[in-house]
Amino acid sequence: MICKKCLVSGRVQGVFYRGAAAQRARELGVRGYARNLADGRVEVLACGEEAAVQTFVSWLWTGSSAAKVTAVQVADAPAHGAPPGFHTA
Fold this sequence. Notes:
A five-stranded mixed sheet has the order 4-1-3-2-5. The mean pLDDT is 96. It has a domain at 14-73: 2-Layer Sandwich (Alpha-Beta Plaits). A hairpin with a 5-residue loop joins strand 2 (31-36) and strand 3. The chain is α+β, with helices and mostly antiparallel strands. The protein has helices at 17-28, 50-59; strands at 2-11, 31-36, 42-48, 68-77, 86-88. It has two helices and five strands, in the order βαββαββ. Helix 1 packs antiparallel against helix 2.
């Protein structure tokens, strides 16, 4: 299992981005979370099998139909902190 912490910038709040991310993560079997940050970005933790996480991280560039993603910063995160399932906050 691998984990990636992603910071997603652009028009990603108020456009169902987190909900769409949760749906896509569950389809791929990815665990983690998506939460809004005060600066307008969305923080995403994605943990799971490498292929599923990579597919999900690539999807973050698309997001919901109303989103306009301008950047996705990706960093490795410790796998031992993976929550069960995928949730939004």
